[in-house]
């Protein structure tokens, strides 16, 4: 887990999780990385309403709620 109480954003969490398959943000400033997901029941998006500590326009989860994302394979075509 990574924490940044003043500067966490969705992009920062994604960068911190390079090499993983999934990343997620919880409680405004916590970033989690992993190669698999746990089998929890999906909660409504409205449960993830806390603004990110580094960009209040973005949502970074909630109390015991993670806004989750999948890292896609990114590459350049020349």
Automatic annotation (TrEMBL):
Location(s) in or outside the cell: Membrane
Keyword Cell inner membrane among record annotations: no
Primary localisation category: membrane
Membrane topology: Single-pass membrane protein
InterPro entries: Kremen_rcpt, WSC_carb-bd
Superkingdom of the organism of origin: Eukaryota
Keywords: Glycoprotein, Membrane, Signal, Transmembrane, Transmembrane helix
Domain WSC: 1-72
Keyword Membrane in record: yes
Protein name: WSC domain-containing protein
Source organism: Tegillarca granosa (Malaysian cockle)
